[in-house]
Amino acid sequence: CDYADLDSALTSIEGEVGTHYIRINKGNYAVPDSMVYVPTVNQTAVYLEGGYDTCTATTPSGNTANDADRAVFDGTGGVSGSVLRLVTDGRVGSFQIRRIVLKNGENSGLTVSGQASVLIGLGTTIRNNARGVSLIGSALNDTSTLARADFYIDEGAEIRNNTNSSSGGGIYCNGHASIVFLDGTISYNQAH
Question: Whole-model pTM?
Answer without folding.
Answer: 0.95
